[in-house]
Amino acid sequence: MSTPEQSPPPSAEELLRAEHAEVDREEQEFMRLSLVLPAWLKDNPGLCLTALYLFASVVGIVFHYLFLRRFGFNVLEFSEGSDFLMVVVREPLTVALAMMGVVFYLAYGWCLMKVAPWARRTFARWRSTPEKRRANMVRFRRWQALIQAAFIGIYAILFVMLFSQWRAARIRAGDFRKVTVHYKTDSPRADGTLSADGLALLGTTSRYVFFYDPVAKRAEVVPLDAIARLTWDARSRREREAAK
In sequence order, which ranges of the chain are alpha helices (DSSP H)? Predict the structure, then answer.
């Protein structure tokens, strides 16, 4: 009766390859597309929503400040506490695009997990032992929340800086919806007229409105109480271009 053949024990290289594969699975689980929240936020969902709204408000305030600063206004001098909380409502698109840093961070994590195994196989300097890779995961876990916050925050700051510059340049070039301002009889303009045509509406606070005159290259801040009404062409861009 013949004894069953025993397979040879795995070599050291096969054992190392298997251990690396196990670490790959641990890294994929660790770097799954998710955001890490501090424990004090996980335990307080209401506080998490408040922190998110405050972050969005700060983004809106920074954009509003940088944008109007390019026309010579310091919006903080004309703002009240309620304006800081309502800036998310006044600039919803800007805030939403600035929050895209979350999506980019998740995409970055996904790409990293796809590229890292290929880079370790291709480049010798990327190779490491399973022990070192696990130690790196422990260190990264310690700083993961801070790294995520820094990534999202830096993206938001860079976005509002570039977007405010682009938007101001578009307005200075004449690409905006022209507004006609009608002033109250007891609040005429400095030249005595009661209306102004072709102005760009830059923004508002609870008490002031900011305009830019592309012809005179002059910006103006007007108290809201001094304005009787605002009128503008409500046609779409395509309709206005077709009528020319």
Answer: 12-30, 39-42, 45-69, 81-90, 92-98, 101-122, 130-172, 237-243
Amino acid identity of residue 182, one-letter, is H
> What tokens does 230 get?
């605002």
Q: Bridge-partner residues for 196, per DSSP? A: 181
pLDDT digits (tens, 9 = 90+) for 178-216: 999 999 887 777 777 888 898 999 988 889 999 999 988
CB hemisphere CA count around 184 (13 angstroms) = 9
Among 71, 62, 64, residue whose Cα is nearest residue 172: 71
What's the distance, CA 118 to chain centroid?
31
Average pLDDT value for residue range 12-32: 66
CA distance 134 to 38: 22
Q: How far is CA 94 from CA 15, 159, 167, 202, 206, in A?
A: 52, 9, 11, 14, 19
Pairwise CA distance, residues 76 & 73, whole Å: 9
Identify which of 139, 147, 142 has the alpha carbon closest to the alpha carbon of residue 108.
147
Q: Which burial class, exposed, middle or buried, applies to 100 when counting CB atoms under 10 A from its CB (0-12, 13-18, 19+)?
A: middle
Tokens of 130: 């399973």
Instruction: Give the distance, in angstroms, between the CA of residue 97 and the centroid of all CA atoms in the same chain.
Output: 5
Could you read off the pLDDT of 61-118 as tens digits, one per residue? Answer: 999 999 999 999 888 888 888 888 888 888 888 888 888 888 887 787 777 777 766 7
Q: How far apart are CA 105 and CA 12, in angstroms?
A: 38
Task: Count the Cβ atoms, other than its own, within 10 Å of residue 42.
Answer: 11
